[in-house]
């Protein structure tokens, strides 16, 4: 487990097996994934604990992550396998907790699961 | 990542809220890149300029930030293209609201001391510092060019990490990577600019950080920039080198099959209603080259050529601009193909372009068809 952005949050897991291109795929105003090909198509990321391998796409996607928070539709927290600068810095500016999980931990976070994230605790991700 | 006492204090807010925000972003960047610490940078290049991409929240963020006296860049800072050409903004029927918001973004950056270069090719229009200099470039084609061609060191920065670097004068640094992740054996003979762009797109899709390309003939500037543009679009790879590659590295071929596979991911149309050349923007060499290719010929469709304002001014005085315009092209400054509101699905079904990066965004963001062709083929097919 590695902390990229500290913080505490609770929410239901929204899990994607595919990376997420925030600039391309997520509507800044609604938090809805608009990319037809994406597994999260038409899902709303707001208030969810977003679990996905990593971010991809343009460097400007950092502003999209920030915009989601400014518009009140950002995930409560993000959990990734790998850090990318777009997601990391967007979360840093918006104060969205971002944690990197190992393979086993990542696999154990199933869609719909209620979790609490607290980066200051030894047990950072706890199923409720 | 190790911070100095001053940096810890800044992170804790003891040097003001702007530094606190900037160091918070740098620390996240450092954690994400396994950085050892922070090192000074000589130059920052920012993305996140086009109102189409950063939107209202981004515009407001920059406005509120730039209103603070402490929000001033500490190093030379340059800027990516914005949404339109300031000289011809009235010609394109843009929404007044868009124009106002875009102006506000430009003003916020200028208030912070950023040079309003509005160009994605800072390496072509500013003096390159000496090899080994650390910089913080957020435009992916520029970061790759800096690392691979100019001998500089930069992370493939995000819009916000580059901004944080501009405001602090620092960027996280990691240990030098061991070597390229993978070696690509270039199997295409005499690759043109489009082949190089697709090679870059392929490389970006398979290499995490660094790639070696073997069997690569010397590339002219247009092809090299095309490769950088393609590579930045598809992944996290931030550097390429040409050569034989290290003994142990994985080897992958790039031949006709791979080329076609990449082409099909972007190219969807047999023809285009308009033509765009740019992405990356054309530098002076390429304007001269384009002029010599189109001299005495004329495009039958609308053709937009994107280059930085400083290049356009030089091209005008050297006569290249006149030749290009006589061929029916419209030269556009301050903006580029990617994410420009100047190309929209209401007016255009498909765009002909030689740009892999431009094509990718035209397809996935603007949502128009894309007809990918090399520049020589575009001139051959679209001019008389």
Helix content of chain A: 10-25%
Pair with the most extensive interface? A-B, 30 and 36 residues
Distance between the termini of chain A: 19 Å
Shape call of chain A:
globular
Number-wise, the strands of chain B total 14
What does this 3D model show about the protein?
The complex is a heterodimer of chains A (128) and B (384). Chain A is an alpha/beta fold. In chain A, 23% of the residues lie in helices and 23% in strands. Chain A contains 4 helices and 7 strands; from the N terminus they run ββαβαβαβαββ. In chain A, β2 (8-15), α1 and β3 (49-51) form a beta-alpha-beta unit. Chain B has 384 residues and is of the alpha/beta class. In chain B, 43% of the residues lie in helices and 15% in strands. Chain B is built from 15 helices and 14 strands. Chain B is globular, with a radius of gyration of 21 Å. Chain B starts with a helix and ends with a helix. Chain A binds chain B through residues 2-5, 23-24, 28, 56, 58-64, 66-67, 70-71, 83-86, 88-93, 98, and chain B through 21, 24-25, 27-29, 31-33, 47-48, 50, 53-58, 60-61, 138-140, 155-162, 164, 235-236, 364-365.
């Amino acid at each position: 487990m590695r902390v990229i952005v500290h913080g505490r949050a609770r929410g239901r897991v929204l899990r994607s097996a595919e990376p997420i291109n925030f600039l391309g795929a997520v509507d800044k105003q609604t938090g809805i994934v608009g990319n037809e090909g994406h597994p999260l198509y038409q899902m709303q990321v707001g208030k969810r604990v977003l679990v996905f391998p990593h971010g991809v796409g343009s460097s400007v996607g950092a502003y999209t992550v920030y915009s989601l928070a400014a518009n009140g539709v950002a995930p409560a927290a993000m959990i990734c396998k790998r850090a990318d600068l777009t997601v990391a810095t967007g979360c840093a500016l918006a104060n969205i907790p971002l944690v990197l999980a190992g393979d086993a931990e990542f696999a154990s976070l199933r869609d719909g699961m209620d979790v609490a994230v607290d980066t200051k605790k030894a047990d950072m991700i706890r199923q409720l | 990542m190790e911070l100095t006492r001053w940096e810890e204090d800044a992170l804790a807010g003891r040097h003001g809220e702007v530094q606190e925000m900037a160091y918070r972003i740098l620390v996240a960047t450092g954690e994400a890149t396994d950085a050892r610490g922070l090192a000074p940078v000589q130059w920052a290049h920012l993305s996140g300029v086009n109102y189409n991409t950063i939107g209202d929240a981004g515009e407001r963020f920059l406005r509120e930030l730039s209103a603070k006296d402490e929000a001033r860049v500490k190093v030379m800072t340059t800027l990516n293209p914005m949404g339109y050409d300031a000289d011809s903004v009235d010609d394109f029927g843009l929404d007044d609201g868009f124009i106002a918001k875009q102006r506000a973004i430009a003003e916020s950056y200028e208030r912070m001391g950023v040079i309003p270069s509005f160009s994605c090719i800072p390496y072509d229009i500013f003096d390159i510092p000496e090899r080994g200099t650390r910089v913080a470039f957020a435009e992916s084609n520029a970061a790759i060019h800096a690392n691979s061609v100019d001998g500089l060191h930069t992370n493939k920065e995000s819009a916000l990490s580059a901004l944080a670097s501009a405001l602090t004068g620092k960027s996280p640094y990691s240990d030098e990577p061991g070597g390229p992740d993978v070696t690509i054996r270039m199997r295409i003979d005499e690759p043109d600019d489009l082949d190089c762009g697709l090679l870059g797109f392929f490389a970006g899709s398979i290499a995490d950080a660094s790639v070696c390309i073997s069997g690569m003939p010397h590339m002219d500037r247009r092809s090299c920039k095309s490769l950088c543009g393609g590579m930045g679009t598809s992944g996290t790879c931030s550097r390429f080198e040409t050569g034989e590659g290290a003994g142990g590295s994985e080897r992958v071929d790039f031949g006709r099959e791979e080329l076609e596979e990449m082409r099909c991911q972007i190219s969807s149309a047999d023809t285009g209603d308009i033509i765009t050349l740019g992405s990356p923007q054309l530098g002076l060499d390429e304007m001269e080259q384009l002029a010599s290719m189109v001299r005495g010929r004329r495009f039958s469709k609308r053709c937009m050529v994107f280059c930085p304002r400083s290049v356009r001014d030089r091209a005008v005085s050297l006569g290249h601009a006149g030749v290009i315009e006589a061929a029916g092209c419209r030269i556009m400054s301050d903006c580029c193909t990617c994410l420009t509101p100047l190309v929209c699905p209401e007016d255009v079904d498909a765009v002909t372009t030689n740009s892999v990066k431009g094509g990718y965004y035209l397809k996935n963001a603007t949502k128009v068809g894309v007809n990918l062709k090399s520049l020589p083929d575009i001139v051959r097919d679209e001019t008389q």
